[in-house]
Structure formats: C-alpha cells, structure tokens
Amino acid sequence: MSLAVVFARASLGVAAPLVTVEAHLANGLPAFNIVGLPETTVKEARDRVRSALLNSGFEFPARRITVNLAPADLPKDGGRFDLPIAMAILAASGQVPATSLEQLEFLGELALTGALRSIKGALPAVLAARDSERILVLPAGNGIEAGVIHPCPARLAPHLLAITAWLQQEGELAVPERVISEERDYITDLCDVIGQEGGKRALEIAAAGEHNLLLLGPPGTGKSMLASRLPGLLPPMSEEEALETAAIRSISGLNLDPENWRLRAFRQPHHSASAVALVGGGSYPRPGEISLAHNGVLFLDEMTEFERRVLDALREPLETSSISIARAAHRVTFPARFQLIGAMNPSPCGHYADGYSRSSSEQILRYLSKISGPFLDRFDLSVEIPLLPPGELSRIRPKAEGSAQIRKRVLAARERQLKRAGKTNARLSAAELDKFCPLEQEDALFLEQALHRMKLSIRAWHKLIRVARTIADLNDEQEIGRHHLIEALGYRAMDRLLQQLQS
C-alpha cells in the first residue's frame, strides 16, 4: 500500500482541531515534501523523521514521499506532527499495519534516536480525542497532563519502537496515572496581615462578589500582602474550571503541578511587561498573563509604573472575559475571566499630600494621570491602606480572623448570588440589576445625589449597586438598604483623592 492516513491534532488557542496526515509514496526520484500550510518547525520534521526511522531500525523509503496535512488552510506549527508523519510513512510503506490506525491519533516530537519528546498543548488534544472516541498516543512526558482527565483516552510511549510493537500486539503502552484532585489549602493566610481591617473587609467583599479591587496607600503598608491572600478566600474551582485553566497552561508550555492544579492562579506580571505579554499575541498567538490568570487573580503592583497603553489594553477583556487576537491567516480567542487587583502609591514620593509628602498637588495629579479614567472606572472598589498608627506593631493583639473563617462567609454569599441570578454580582448586567437589585425611591435619590457630588459616571452607579448587593449578601439580608449603599460609597478612595486634588 502506497497511501496511508493518520490522525493528529493541531493547536489553535485552547482548541485542538483534527488534522489528517496523508502520506503517499510514488515512483520517481527520492524526495520528501510536506504540504498543508506547515510552519518552519513542521518542515524541519523531514530530517527528524528520516533519522528517527533509520536509527530505530526501520527502512526509509527511497521514493517520492508526499505528506499532506489537512485541512490545508489551518496553520500547523511545532514538532507535534513528527510522530504522526512517521507513522503515516511506516503505514504507507507496509512496515506497520494500516488498519490498526483508524481509531488512533498521534502526537509527539521525535528525537533523532526515535525517542519521543513531550509537546505543548497535550491536554486540549486529549479532551478532543475523548470527544471523538479515539485513543491518543502521546510521549511519556505528557503523562501528568493526560492524567487529570478521567476516563483518559490516552496511551503513553517513550519511543517509536514501543508504538510499533503495540500496534503489532507485541507489547503494551502505559495508561496515564490518574491525578487525584484533592482540595488543598493556600499557604498564605489573612491572619498574617497586621491591622488594616478596612483593607481586609474590602478584600472579603471583592472575593464574595468577584469585584475588581484597587489598593491605594504608601509603600510598605501591606497592599501586596492583602492581594496575595485573595485566592485563599475564593471558592474552590469546579473540575470544568480547573481543566480550562490547565489547558491554558498546557498550550503555554508551563508544567502542571499534580498537587496544586486545582488551586486558583495568582499572576503578578512585572510593570515592564508589554501589551503582548499581558493580553497575548505574537505571530502565532500565545496566551498572555490575563489568560494565565483565567478563573484566578491578576495582581498589578505599582500600577502607575505600567505603560498607559498596556493598562488600557485590559479594558475590553475585563468586560468580555475573553481576548480575541486576529492575524491574517486565522483568529484565536483565549478565555480571560480574571479578578483584577491593583496596587499603587498616592503620589510620586509614595505618601499623601500631608506632612510626609514631598510632592505638590500638580505633581500628584500628573502622577495619577498616568492611569486613564476609563481604566480606573473598571474597579468596583478602591480602598486606602494607610500607615499603621503608632503602637500598633508593639501592642498585644488578639488572634486575627483567618482566611478559612472569612472564606465560609464568602462561600455563603456566593451561594445566595448563584441561587438568585445564576452568576456573581460583579457579572450582573444592567437589566439584571433592575430585576435583582431594586432600590427604594429614597435610597435611589440618595445614591444619585452622592454620584453627582463625587462626579462619577453611570458605570459607577451600576458598580455601587453591585457592591451594595454583595455587602447585603454577606450580611444575609434580602434587600439593599441605605447602610449598604453608604458602605459601598466608602470604597471610592481614588475618587475622593482626585476630587480633593482638583478642588
């Protein structure tokens, strides 16, 4: 037989579309051509496959070999197609039985010795193979990724010879060892933070309603410590959410920790990060920090040090929970549902316009204007994290409330939100706010007057109601009251600071 068909999987975002690898051996001068929109790394498979077959003891056909990767308009990159190309050539030359390949898929990069090297994006491919009811043969190095799926349709092979022996029923391929998903606690705990009760309360509200939070205060007051404790307050991820997050890590080439893969991500990019590093991109699009923080927390420390255009690139993903990257040949969409926590100083010298500050009001306004108003408008809460009062560090303090205790209240509030609207309060649309968060006429008038005094936008009106609804849920109260609105207005520290400087 001079024609053979083998199935493989490409990598396109978090999807793994099917690729049909067709190998044809024809008479003529020996040649080896790969067609079907292959990138450079795929074209280089010709040399890797030839050496791997010869060094494994197989015959490399001295004929005109044409390998087609279909569909032809789907870009293919990486070394993942080495193994399926090698299997198609072996089947076309009659060195392995072609009939046994119909219910199989292959992915793997070949070493020149015939050994298999692990690939990026194995997890989406395993999920796609399971949906197609086929068995996916993978390198042994991808065993941990495949093991998070149960039942797992994958088989693991260390070498090309192990696969050919298995196809001829002369051996067995290993089944990935199942990764047990046990709920684990986070290392950090909120009781480690000294004082800052206002910041802890804001963090609890942010966790309960999935609100974005801005921490504003001088250096060394505990802003980063508070932000790092947020994942420990959030509900555990469902298996579907955990698989989504693991799939993004898989296509990014990041190792999957079998003990911590169910924990929510906490990503903290450096302020020198580019827009591509943050939102994703490249000639062949790869996920950025916002996608790696999917179902978790993205923490931007020293926010005023980021480039303004980099921060503004986050505005659209914050609203849509995804990022679409368009290129001439294709369009890729990555999920990006993350909770944003920002931290910044109130002035260039780090302090407020008081006895500690060395900056004028004009300098402070110029410093704060590095962040655009529309981006600041994406934060539901902004809270001051002040310097600790004298004597706070040396006094004997009672044991502070830990993350586990606060998390119980957060979980109870989340359950009320999901039961009421099927989503968290931060995700409620304007129409859903009218339905689930009605205000008394007097309270609505009070909020509107406060809005005009603080010169806030209509978006801020909606955010204040969402925050007030979360506060009511934490208190297990059915209706939004005036005291909830007053507390929500108290979490507008940035608006008050700007108003004070402009007056």
From TrEMBL:
<dbReference type="InterPro" id="IPR001208">
    <property type="entry name" value="MCM_dom"/>
</dbReference>
<dbReference type="InterPro" id="IPR045006">
    <property type="entry name" value="CHLI-like"/>
</dbReference>
<dbReference type="GO" id="GO:0003677">
    <property type="term" value="F:DNA binding"/>
</dbReference>
<dbReference type="GO" id="GO:0005524">
    <property type="term" value="F:ATP binding"/>
</dbReference>
<feature type="domain" description="MCM C-terminal AAA(+) ATPase">
    <location>
        <begin position="288"/>
        <end position="381"/>
    </location>
</feature>
<dbReference type="InterPro" id="IPR014721">
    <property type="entry name" value="Ribsml_uS5_D2-typ_fold_subgr"/>
</dbReference>
<dbReference type="GO" id="GO:0008233">
    <property type="term" value="F:peptidase activity"/>
</dbReference>
<keyword id="KW-0547">Nucleotide-binding</keyword>
<keyword id="KW-0378">Hydrolase</keyword>
<dbReference type="Pfam" id="PF01078">
    <property type="entry name" value="Mg_chelatase"/>
</dbReference>
<dbReference type="Pfam" id="PF13335">
    <property type="entry name" value="Mg_chelatase_C"/>
</dbReference>
<dbReference type="InterPro" id="IPR025158">
    <property type="entry name" value="Mg_chelat-rel_C"/>
</dbReference>
<dbReference type="GO" id="GO:0006508">
    <property type="term" value="P:proteolysis"/>
</dbReference>
<comment type="similarity">
    <text>Belongs to the Mg-chelatase subunits D/I family. ComM subfamily.</text>
</comment>
<keyword id="KW-0645">Protease</keyword>
<keyword id="KW-0067">ATP-binding</keyword>
<dbReference type="InterPro" id="IPR027417">
    <property type="entry name" value="P-loop_NTPase"/>
</dbReference>
<protein>
    <submittedName>
        <fullName>ATP-dependent protease</fullName>
    </submittedName>
</protein>
<dbReference type="InterPro" id="IPR004482">
    <property type="entry name" value="Mg_chelat-rel"/>
</dbReference>
<dbReference type="InterPro" id="IPR003593">
    <property type="entry name" value="AAA+_ATPase"/>
</dbReference>
<dbReference type="InterPro" id="IPR000523">
    <property type="entry name" value="Mg_chelatse_chII-like_cat_dom"/>
</dbReference>
<dbReference type="InterPro" id="IPR020568">
    <property type="entry name" value="Ribosomal_Su5_D2-typ_SF"/>
</dbReference>
<dbReference type="Pfam" id="PF13541">
    <property type="entry name" value="ChlI"/>
</dbReference>
